[in-house]
Design goal:
Blueprint lengths: L3 E2 L10 H9 L12 H21 L6 E4 L2 H13 L15 E5 L4 H12 L3 E5 L9 H7 L4 E5 L13 H10 L3 E5 L11 H4 L3 E5 L10 E5 L25 H39 L3 E4 L9 E6 L4 H10 L2 E2 L15 H5 L4 H4 L2 E5 L6 H21 L9
Helix pairs in contact: 1-8, 2-8, 3-4, 8-12, 9-12
Length: about 400
């Protein structure tokens, strides 16, 4: 039985060249903070990787901070900017207790913001349209003198919609408000330039771009002041205490290097695969809704709602046939509630529950898509035949 992996938004396989970089770096056991030759070899590897990560988003190496995951990067921004510790913050830091975000952010953004909301911060949760797009006009109206941070993701992890980040960041900058973007799903898949977009912070994660889990990075624009969340030693300019994960950082650097080299050809190839899958689903299966923007979307992501049945049942049946997909964000799996993203774009509860996310990666082929399109229609029909909601149900 074929094995088809279509859950790359949850995590990606490690790229062969990244595996080789890890193998070659296994002897870099020295502590990068040590001054002897073994420590300095590790330090050089870390700094070389920092340059490669910086190049992925057109930043300066000194603007890149290594973390353990995208969630940590997001928390460092949200908690670091809103920190009230006068020892951490400079006199130039803008006071205020108002944050602006959207209704479709990843839980690693929404949950720390909700925590601040419980502590007395005012939060504006911007709505999105039926495609998942934020209206820049609403952001402009929402900013007040108390606003200290705007956090809006580059591309949505469930439906793939790409936000107008440059326009949104320009609005925030015009009000002297910090702008953060969670680019975990976009980094390596889209061309990203922090100088052109004008963001102050950008999060990315290794395991979303073919590096291992346990390593990530945060871009912090030069001159921006934040408080450390993980306090300890002097590592990462004092913003992230703890001995650097040298092997993970080396792997992330290599993954970024590969992403820069292969990005253009991967985007073109993945677009073709996504379109092959999208068209095939619409041709072979009735009563399907494709979620997200039809054009402003990641080439790796296709969210499809199959009416009258449950997404969990689809997932399990496809898994039994060797096809791995997701019902939404992997971070929300296990929740009985429908996706907050799908509800935000206007899908009713009963439809949101019938949604599958197909997410592609560099290893996927035409044969993978063909096999999926061979299996999927039968799975959908079998489940609909058992569903009392399906007009042609045999129940």
């Amino acid at each position: 039985m074929p094995q088809v992996y279509l859950d790359n938004n949850a995590t990606t396989p490690i790229h062969p060249e990244v595996k080789q970089a890890i193998t070659d770096g296994l002897d870099l056991f020295g502590n990068a903070s040590s001054e002897h030759f073994l420590g300095q070899a590790a330090r050089k590897a870390v700094e070389d990787a920092r340059k490669k990560v910086a190049a992925l988003v057109n930043a300066k190496p000194a603007e890149i901070i290594f973390t353990s995951c995208g969630s940590e990067s997001n928390n460092l921004v949200i908690k670091g900017v809103t920190c009230q510790d006068i020892i951490c913050k400079s006199e130039a830091s803008k006071p205020g207790k108002h944050i602006i975000t959207t209704q479709i952010e990843h839980p690693s953004v929404t949950n720390p913001i909700k925590s601040l909301e419980r502590q007395g911060f005012k939060v504006t949760w911007l709505p999105v349209d039926q495609y998942g797009l934020v209206d820049p006009g609403l952001l402009s109206k929402a900013i007040s003198k108390q606003t200290v941070l705007v956090s809006i993701m580059t591309a949505n992890n469930e439906i793939g919609t790409i936000e107008p980040i440059a326009e949104l960041a320009k609005i925030a900058r015009g009000h002297e408000v910090y702008f953060h973007t969670d680019a975990v799903q976009a980094a390596g898949k889209l061309e990203i330039d922090v100088k052109e977009t004008g963001v102050d912070f950008l999060s990315l994660s290794g395991h979303k771009l073919y590096a291992p889990k346990g390593v990530a990075a945060l871009y912090i624009r030069e001159g921006v002041v934040v408080c450390p969340v993980l306090q300890g030693g002097h590592q990462e300019r004092g913003l992230r205490g703890g001995t650097e994960n040298t092997l993970g950082i080396v792997a992330l650097g290599k993954a970024c290097e590969v992403a820069i080299r292969d990005r253009e050809k991967n985007i073109e190839r993945l677009w073709k695969l996504r379109e092959r899958l999208r068209k095939g689903i619409l041709e072979k299966i009735p009563e399907v809704v494709i979620n997200g923007h039809p054009e402003k979307t990641l080439p790796t992501t296709l969210s499809a709602t199959f009416k009258f049945i449950e997404g969990e049942s689809i997932l399990l049946r496809l898994s039994s046939k060797g096809i791995a997909v997701s019902t939404g964000s992997a971070c929300s799996s296990g929740s009985l509630e429908p996706s907050h993203v799908l509800l935000a774009i206007g899908l009713p509860h009963e439809l949101a529950h019938g949604t599958i996310r197909f997410s592609l990666g560099f290893e996927n082929t035409d044969a993978d898509i063909d096999y999926t399109l061979e299996v999927l229609p039968g799975v959908i029909q079998q489940l609909r035949d058992m569903s009392p909601l399906w007009p042609g149900s045999k129940k």
